[in-house]
Amino acid sequence: MDRFTISLSEELAAAFDELIAERGYASRSEAVRDILRRELQERAGQRDDAGPCVASLSYVYDHHERSLAERLTELQHEHHDLTVAAMHAHLDHDNCLEAVMLKGRVRDVRRFADSLIAERGVRHGQLNLIHVSDAAHSHHPAAGERDGHATFRPDADGAAHGHAPARSHPHKHPHRHR
Question: Are 68 and 81 found together in one domain?
């Protein structure tokens, strides 16, 4: 591992130590590594918009806006090649939150996210994009998996419960697969 030394003002060091404590880093070194990885990934992303990525798009919208929910759903269907999954939540009487998981080429994912956020009635939108290698983007299911994607089945109380197919996982609740 390569080592280097940096000098910080007392104020900057104190603010950095506060950030470390808030985020639960074990050390300054781990925090610096995380910040560097994030900055380098963002820099690479600005240069390579043709590479593969995975992303989470979150947006809040006014569900009273005429036909907005239908337009958003239609856009997701039109981009089924990018849309992996979507989750919808009612925040209050007027607002809904949607989180859409996306996978594809950076330029296509950004263009699609921008089009959803630009719809009239969408109040807030945020894209969290993560660049992945072509090897991570390509996907070969393990033996016993249908397509390698998670499956979701409602529990007895109607709550969605998701698992990757044919994989064991350590937690203590009954599985009722139908």
Answer: yes
Phi-psi region at 34: left, alpha or beta (left = phi > 0; alpha = psi -120 to 50): alpha
Contact status, residue 128 vs residue 55, Cβ threshold 8 Å: yes
| Rounded to 5°, angle at Cα 42 from 112 and 89 | 45
Q: Report the alpha-carbon angle 124-71-100, nearest 5.
A: 55
Predicted TM-score (pTM) of this structure:
0.58
Q: What single DSSP character describes residue 92?
A: S
The 10s digit of each residue's pLDDT in 44-72 is 666 667 889 999 999 999 988 889 999 99
For the chain, the domain total comes to 2
For helices 68-78 and 106-117, angle between their N-to-C axes, nearest 10 degrees: 170
User: What CATH number is attached to the domain comprising 94?
Assistant: 3.30.70.1150
